[in-house]
Amino acid sequence: MLFWLAKVGTVVNKPDQDYDRATELRIQIAAHDQAYHGLDEPLVPDADYDELVRELIAIEERRPDLATSDSPSVSVGSEPNEMFTPVEHEVPMMSLDNAMDLKELDAWHERILKGLDASDKPKFVCELKFDGLAVSIRYDDGELIQAATRGNGRVGEDVTHNVLTIRGIPHRIDGAPKILEVRGEVYLPISDFDELNRQQLANGGAPFANPRNTAAGSLRQKDPEVTASRNLAFWSYQLGQVSGGPVISSSEETFALLESLGLPVNPEIQEFSDFADVREFCENWMGKRHEPDYEIDGVVVKLADLTQREKLGSTSRAPRWAIAFKFPPEEKITRLMKIDVSVGRTGRATPFAVLEPIFVGGSTVSMATLHNEDQVAAKDVRPGDMVVVRKAGDVIPEVVGPVVTERDTKSEPWSFPKTCPSCSSALVRSDGDANTYCLSRTCPARVETGIIHFASRNALDIEGLGERTVRGLVTQGLVRDVGDLFGLTKNQLLEVLVADASNETLVNNLMTAINEARERPLSNVLIGLGIEHLGPTAAEMIARRFGSVEAIANADVAEIEAIDGIGPVIAQSVADFFSDSHNQLVIDKLKSNGVRLDLVDGETDVPQILVGRSVVVTGSLDGWFISREEAKKAIVARGGKSPGSVSKSTYALVVGAEAGQSKLDKAEELGVPVVGETELRLLIEIGELP
Predict the structure, then answer these.
(1) What is the reported pTM?
(2) Measured on CA atoms in the order 507, 513, 514, 515, is the torsion positive or negative?
């Protein structure tokens, strides 16, 4: 577009950068809308899409003459896919405006107060923002007759047959209003998503990108049997068209009606009168976003009173009475500079991506895991690619996949190296194993990572023995395995830590820490040795049963497996470890260097009254038990098991303060008794619940 300016009789043409950028943004956003809503294959992370929309809105607000009636800034979703029968929504399914931080959330609050009379004291309802697919489900005379996606907000896609396969959605509701339209979110539980990907990889298929896209793709299948196999779930959160039902005046009454009709309502919904509590709710869930077994990407904040909602009304695309507080993005795009391979203590060679540093999920990421050779091939990521990187809480960042449209036409697939990057030994991959290994026991990388694990907090807890010091000890040949640690002298440590006044203090502290580590409990020693498949609970059980490393080494597989809670895989792994000649030499070295290998922590010789019972402990304990860990030890000491998750075999769930909701939900679903510390004490004393 050109501006024609008259100046002293001269016509001047000037490029209009706002017009050009707005046009470019509309084209990009429309393509992303179609990819995300229409094809369930987003081209960019949500945060990048949000930035494009916000930039377009800013231009249109600054230049109203550039706003158009069909702009993506005022539209919802995408046009329905022609594969499906179109469904016209009697009440439009709108989108939500976003608040990207607390400052923007406060600004929305100020707009709410200005839009209401001074006498209207607003209450707010906070709901988790599910990362799934919005649907509308219609019941006539209690019978489910139609289900549709949001589509463009006015017309959606008929997915009735697929919705009928989703657990938790009733096909018939007794006592329902004559016409009842329920709106909510279809999602795929994270545990089911993980299992689905395990099956995909086992069958040679490519892994699915994330639960949201998988849920959307599963719902929009032509074959309902495919949808039924995906274990989709549903949360209801709103009413659309209702006729012949009770008069509803608040969100509380809305959710009460939905629950009374047997529709699933999320248990985390809360109502607040003070907006400071709304802010706190948002901040709390920002830190707990990975606790539920479903993905959330924010909090939806709404006015609780429906009359106040009606008074504020809506724009062409979103209600003014609601806003989505978005959590910081956990997916970003950056360049994959190269693919390297790291070797761990077991010899497993793991490929990882070296990235152009990018801030994502609250921290700067420069490396991300690629898991194994098959995952690299399935994702087809290559050095030089622009890639999507995901960071979920404390989980190691991972590369989701490449942005193929940005790929250099000359790029070639990456090949797994044939030799170990640390010791140049041949890398080996056995038939049927997804992992590749370096088998050399003297591989510096294996030795270093093994020692770092041995000195870690959950094992021997040798404070001051960091990666740099370990690397120096191995490089200078002072330590070849964990047994050598306890034979080190002060002068040897000073050689590694360049001698100066401050380093002598560090060395003295490290010598003290090494000496103290000689007296660690047997279970910690077993964990430190890095026995494959052996976790803390199993290590504790084995330590209590046998009492010493010597007794464990002399036990056969059947004796180890006879311990309740120890399966054949763990038993075989423990037996194999102690029968290995190299490991026997390490044990002898530990013993000769004064390491106690027969200390059993906590109670001994207690009655085995919890054999066969699994008791899960969650939350903080501050009554009879000092901590949750102490409670678990007491359970294990009596022959019971104390795993980290609730299952059908769980005897009881013990709940302390600030317990996560997901375990409570699972216990309720499976009918597992939920008890407190008082009942736990009885359980420890008599072996059963009162």
Answers:
(1) 0.52
(2) positive
